[in-house]
What does this fold into?
Amino acid sequence: TEAEIIHTLIYKNVHDRPTPYIYSEIETLQLMEECKKLHSSDGIRAYTIEIIIGLLWSTGLRPSEPTKLTVTDVDLIQNILHIRETKFSKERFVPVDETVAEKLLNYKLWISNKLGPNRPTDAFFYTTGGIPLKKSALSYAFKLIRTCIRATPIGYPYVRLYDFRHTMACNTIRRWSEQGIDVNTKLHVLSTYMGHVKPADTYWYLSATPEMLGLSCLKYETHFGGSL
It folds into this structure.
Protein backbone atom coordinates (compact mmCIF):
# COMPACT_ATOMS: atom_id res chain seq x y z
CA THR A 1 0.00 0.00 0.00
CA GLU A 2 3.02 2.28 0.41
CA ALA A 3 4.26 1.71 -3.16
CA GLU A 4 4.13 4.80 -5.34
CA ILE A 5 2.06 4.54 -8.50
CA ILE A 6 3.93 5.83 -11.55
CA HIS A 7 1.84 8.22 -13.62
CA THR A 8 1.08 6.85 -17.06
CA LEU A 9 2.08 10.10 -18.81
CA ILE A 10 5.67 10.17 -17.56
CA TYR A 11 6.94 8.20 -20.54
CA LYS A 12 5.92 9.29 -23.98
CA ASN A 13 4.12 6.78 -26.19
CA VAL A 14 6.79 5.43 -28.54
CA HIS A 15 4.17 5.21 -31.28
CA ASP A 16 3.26 8.91 -31.15
CA ARG A 17 3.55 10.39 -34.62
CA PRO A 18 5.37 13.73 -34.74
CA THR A 19 3.95 16.09 -37.32
CA PRO A 20 6.31 15.75 -40.29
CA TYR A 21 7.67 18.78 -42.08
CA ILE A 22 6.77 18.73 -45.77
CA TYR A 23 9.52 20.40 -47.81
CA SER A 24 8.62 22.56 -50.76
CA GLU A 25 10.61 22.22 -53.95
CA ILE A 26 12.08 25.67 -53.39
CA GLU A 27 13.27 24.69 -49.91
CA THR A 28 14.85 21.52 -51.27
CA LEU A 29 16.72 23.52 -53.90
CA GLN A 30 17.86 25.96 -51.19
CA LEU A 31 19.23 23.08 -49.13
CA MET A 32 21.06 21.67 -52.15
CA GLU A 33 22.56 25.07 -52.89
CA GLU A 34 23.60 25.44 -49.25
CA CYS A 35 25.64 22.24 -49.59
CA LYS A 36 28.16 24.19 -51.64
CA LYS A 37 29.11 26.03 -48.43
CA LEU A 38 30.05 22.85 -46.55
CA HIS A 39 33.74 22.64 -45.74
CA SER A 40 35.12 20.25 -48.32
CA SER A 41 38.78 20.53 -49.24
CA ASP A 42 38.45 18.31 -52.29
CA GLY A 43 34.80 19.15 -53.05
CA ILE A 44 33.60 15.58 -52.54
CA ARG A 45 31.60 16.13 -49.36
CA ALA A 46 29.73 19.16 -50.70
CA TYR A 47 28.80 17.49 -54.00
CA THR A 48 27.82 14.20 -52.35
CA ILE A 49 25.45 15.75 -49.81
CA GLU A 50 23.85 17.87 -52.54
CA ILE A 51 23.17 14.80 -54.70
CA ILE A 52 21.80 12.78 -51.79
CA ILE A 53 19.35 15.50 -50.76
CA GLY A 54 18.02 15.56 -54.31
CA LEU A 55 17.82 11.77 -54.25
CA LEU A 56 15.88 11.73 -50.97
CA TRP A 57 13.47 14.36 -52.30
CA SER A 58 12.74 12.42 -55.48
CA THR A 59 12.67 8.85 -54.16
CA GLY A 60 11.70 9.01 -50.49
CA LEU A 61 14.48 6.62 -49.53
CA ARG A 62 15.24 6.15 -45.86
CA PRO A 63 18.23 8.40 -44.98
CA SER A 64 20.44 5.38 -44.32
CA GLU A 65 19.72 3.72 -47.66
CA PRO A 66 21.80 5.95 -50.00
CA THR A 67 24.85 5.47 -47.76
CA LYS A 68 24.62 1.68 -48.22
CA LEU A 69 24.49 1.77 -52.02
CA THR A 70 27.37 0.18 -53.92
CA VAL A 71 28.35 0.81 -57.52
CA THR A 72 26.58 -2.33 -58.68
CA ASP A 73 23.40 -1.29 -56.82
CA VAL A 74 23.00 1.77 -59.03
CA ASP A 75 21.90 0.60 -62.48
CA LEU A 76 22.12 3.68 -64.70
CA ILE A 77 21.11 1.76 -67.82
CA GLN A 78 17.69 0.69 -66.54
CA ASN A 79 17.54 3.57 -64.02
CA ILE A 80 16.98 1.33 -61.00
CA LEU A 81 18.42 1.36 -57.49
CA HIS A 82 18.84 -1.95 -55.71
CA ILE A 83 18.13 -1.34 -52.02
CA ARG A 84 19.53 -4.34 -50.17
CA GLU A 85 19.88 -3.85 -46.42
CA THR A 86 16.53 -2.41 -45.46
CA LYS A 87 14.19 -2.21 -42.51
CA PHE A 88 12.56 -5.60 -41.91
CA SER A 89 15.29 -7.11 -44.18
CA LYS A 90 13.07 -6.50 -47.19
CA GLU A 91 15.16 -5.63 -50.23
CA ARG A 92 13.56 -3.83 -53.16
CA PHE A 93 14.24 -2.26 -56.56
CA VAL A 94 13.49 1.46 -56.82
CA PRO A 95 13.01 3.00 -60.30
CA VAL A 96 14.24 6.57 -60.65
CA ASP A 97 13.36 9.30 -63.10
CA GLU A 98 15.69 9.91 -66.06
CA THR A 99 16.65 13.30 -64.65
CA VAL A 100 17.69 11.65 -61.37
CA ALA A 101 19.64 8.97 -63.23
CA GLU A 102 21.45 11.69 -65.17
CA LYS A 103 22.51 13.42 -61.94
CA LEU A 104 23.73 10.10 -60.52
CA LEU A 105 25.69 9.35 -63.68
CA ASN A 106 27.36 12.77 -63.58
CA TYR A 107 28.26 12.16 -59.95
CA LYS A 108 29.66 8.69 -60.71
CA LEU A 109 31.86 10.02 -63.51
CA TRP A 110 33.02 12.92 -61.35
CA ILE A 111 33.96 10.61 -58.48
CA SER A 112 35.84 8.32 -60.87
CA ASN A 113 37.88 11.27 -62.09
CA LYS A 114 38.61 12.24 -58.47
CA LEU A 115 39.34 8.82 -56.98
CA GLY A 116 40.04 6.60 -59.95
CA PRO A 117 38.05 3.63 -61.33
CA ASN A 118 35.99 1.79 -58.73
CA ARG A 119 34.97 -1.84 -58.36
CA PRO A 120 31.33 -3.02 -58.43
CA THR A 121 31.39 -3.65 -54.68
CA ASP A 122 32.77 -0.21 -53.82
CA ALA A 123 30.55 2.42 -52.20
CA PHE A 124 28.67 4.73 -54.54
CA PHE A 125 28.74 7.81 -52.30
CA TYR A 126 31.88 9.29 -50.72
CA THR A 127 32.96 12.13 -48.49
CA THR A 128 36.19 14.10 -48.08
CA GLY A 129 39.35 12.12 -48.78
CA GLY A 130 37.55 9.37 -50.68
CA ILE A 131 36.03 7.85 -47.56
CA PRO A 132 32.70 6.02 -48.05
CA LEU A 133 29.90 8.17 -46.69
CA LYS A 134 28.24 6.97 -43.47
CA LYS A 135 24.79 7.86 -42.20
CA SER A 136 26.28 9.75 -39.24
CA ALA A 137 28.31 11.96 -41.60
CA LEU A 138 25.23 12.62 -43.73
CA SER A 139 23.20 13.56 -40.64
CA TYR A 140 25.92 15.90 -39.38
CA ALA A 141 26.24 17.65 -42.74
CA PHE A 142 22.48 18.14 -42.87
CA LYS A 143 22.59 19.60 -39.37
CA LEU A 144 24.98 22.27 -40.68
CA ILE A 145 22.81 23.35 -43.60
CA ARG A 146 19.21 22.87 -42.44
CA THR A 147 18.86 26.32 -40.86
CA CYS A 148 19.11 27.99 -44.27
CA ILE A 149 15.42 27.42 -45.00
CA ARG A 150 14.31 28.86 -41.63
CA ALA A 151 11.77 26.07 -41.20
CA THR A 152 9.56 25.86 -38.10
CA PRO A 153 8.44 22.24 -37.72
CA ILE A 154 5.77 21.25 -35.19
CA GLY A 155 6.72 18.99 -32.29
CA TYR A 156 10.50 18.97 -32.74
CA PRO A 157 13.11 21.74 -32.97
CA TYR A 158 14.60 21.14 -36.43
CA VAL A 159 13.66 19.61 -39.75
CA ARG A 160 14.89 16.05 -40.30
CA LEU A 161 16.28 14.03 -43.17
CA TYR A 162 13.41 11.62 -42.61
CA ASP A 163 10.98 14.40 -43.50
CA PHE A 164 11.98 13.93 -47.14
CA ARG A 165 10.35 10.49 -46.99
CA HIS A 166 7.10 12.02 -45.77
CA THR A 167 7.40 14.70 -48.45
CA MET A 168 7.75 12.22 -51.30
CA ALA A 169 4.73 10.22 -50.10
CA CYS A 170 2.55 13.34 -49.82
CA ASN A 171 3.70 14.66 -53.21
CA THR A 172 2.88 11.34 -54.86
CA ILE A 173 -0.65 11.27 -53.42
CA ARG A 174 -1.14 14.90 -54.47
CA ARG A 175 -0.06 14.18 -58.07
CA TRP A 176 -2.36 11.18 -58.28
CA SER A 177 -5.25 13.28 -56.99
CA GLU A 178 -4.54 16.03 -59.52
CA GLN A 179 -4.51 13.41 -62.29
CA GLY A 180 -7.84 11.96 -61.17
CA ILE A 181 -6.28 8.64 -60.14
CA ASP A 182 -8.05 6.60 -57.45
CA VAL A 183 -5.53 6.80 -54.63
CA ASN A 184 -6.95 3.83 -52.75
CA THR A 185 -6.41 1.47 -55.68
CA LYS A 186 -2.84 2.71 -56.22
CA LEU A 187 -1.66 2.90 -52.63
CA HIS A 188 -0.09 -0.57 -52.80
CA VAL A 189 2.24 0.75 -55.54
CA LEU A 190 3.52 3.53 -53.28
CA SER A 191 3.76 1.06 -50.40
CA THR A 192 5.93 -1.32 -52.45
CA TYR A 193 8.10 1.54 -53.72
CA MET A 194 8.77 2.75 -50.18
CA GLY A 195 9.56 -0.75 -48.94
CA HIS A 196 6.66 -1.15 -46.54
CA VAL A 197 5.47 -4.54 -45.37
CA LYS A 198 1.82 -3.56 -45.80
CA PRO A 199 -0.08 -0.53 -47.21
CA ALA A 200 -1.28 0.39 -43.72
CA ASP A 201 2.31 1.39 -42.91
CA THR A 202 2.24 3.91 -45.75
CA TYR A 203 -0.61 5.87 -44.16
CA TRP A 204 1.88 6.88 -41.43
CA TYR A 205 3.60 9.06 -44.02
CA LEU A 206 0.55 10.89 -45.35
CA SER A 207 -0.30 14.37 -44.08
CA ALA A 208 -3.14 16.80 -44.74
CA THR A 209 -1.05 19.43 -46.51
CA PRO A 210 -2.70 22.68 -47.66
CA GLU A 211 -2.43 21.48 -51.27
CA MET A 212 -4.17 18.20 -50.45
CA LEU A 213 -6.90 19.94 -48.47
CA GLY A 214 -7.46 22.30 -51.39
CA LEU A 215 -7.80 19.38 -53.80
CA SER A 216 -10.20 17.61 -51.46
CA CYS A 217 -12.38 20.71 -51.14
CA LEU A 218 -12.39 21.20 -54.91
CA LYS A 219 -13.46 17.59 -55.49
CA TYR A 220 -16.19 17.92 -52.89
CA GLU A 221 -17.54 21.11 -54.43
CA THR A 222 -17.39 19.60 -57.91
CA HIS A 223 -19.33 16.56 -56.81
CA PHE A 224 -21.84 18.08 -54.38
CA GLY A 225 -21.83 21.75 -55.40
CA GLY A 226 -20.22 24.57 -53.50
CA SER A 227 -22.95 27.23 -53.56
CA LEU A 228 -25.75 27.63 -51.02
